[in-house]
Predict the 3D structure of the following.
Amino acid sequence: MSERTATAVLAATERPSAVLPRTRNLRAVLLFSGLGIGLVVTVLLAAGRGQLQIPADEVLGAVLHRIGLDVGPLPAHPQGEVTLWTVRFPRVVLAVLVGGALAAAGALMQGVFGNPLAEPGVVGVSTGAALAAAVVIVFQIGLLGAWTVPVFAFVGGLVTTVLVYLLSRADGRTEVVTLVLTGIAVNAVCSAGLALMLFLADTQAREEIIFWQLGSLNGTRWVYVAVVVPFVAVGLAGALVLARRLDVLALGDRAARHVGIHVEQVRMVAIVLVAVLTAAGVSFAGIIGFVGLVVPHLIRMVIGPGHRLLIPASALGGALLLLLADLVARTAVPYADLPIGMLTALVGGPFFFWLLRRTRRTAGGWA
């Protein structure tokens, strides 16, 4: 590739509006507007739904009064405001953070692998976190009190990802196919370890492990939100920094190297960001599947593969999807809290089957 061609490629990736059709730009504006409005409306509705019903205008009034604006009605119920700020809002905010993190991680994975079927679980983050959490639960490790399970889960997810990356390297390079196959092998080992923990566990520990595996936002507190926020912020910021390089990487490793991009370094940084984003969500919410698969692919079908739009749009879409799933989990069955991972799997499973069939019918599989 000549220097002139390389310059043209870099310029194109720096000016996405110059290469995107006008209709696609309009789609992007409409998509971001729709997702943003939908997320705000869903936050107000989700915060008001539950055993204690609070109208959306009173929820909005509580928020406005808290930030110093004397506008709108406060919750009429004596316990309304306490319920909102101690129970509902922490759960709603964590659902937004975890959903956005998982979807952004999925967009990164699909960009690195060049495959719409890729999702964060490929590098073993979820199963590694689950195994670490199960070890804590079974052996009743309490080094950090109530923080022991989420901290061990976070570390377990990161360690598993690093292990997959190191095992897949050969001659200073990491091939995508080798990385995927190594991830499958490590996932299998972690799953076997998890099965062993279930075998060793007593009834109470077994129920806790199974419920944690299915995912739940029940019992969320503001302190959990405060821990997750910086990891998600760093992960999203890093993903946006990598966006232009991922666009060039889509042209192929050889073309990316010709324009001066260190492919191996980009791939390594992207996988670490995926681990940080996914582990931050999994450590407090348990395993929630398919968000990182479904959302980025749907967003790509609307606005195309440019990662500087795809990553933030995926984060918004993931936040909206998980918030809706959590709302259903809290309200579908009276006085019960359904596992949120089960609901996302019910939606994601059929979608994955459709996506697999669609990919087989099209060359390359990208929408």
Observations:
- The chain has one domain: 3-31+87-328+336-361.
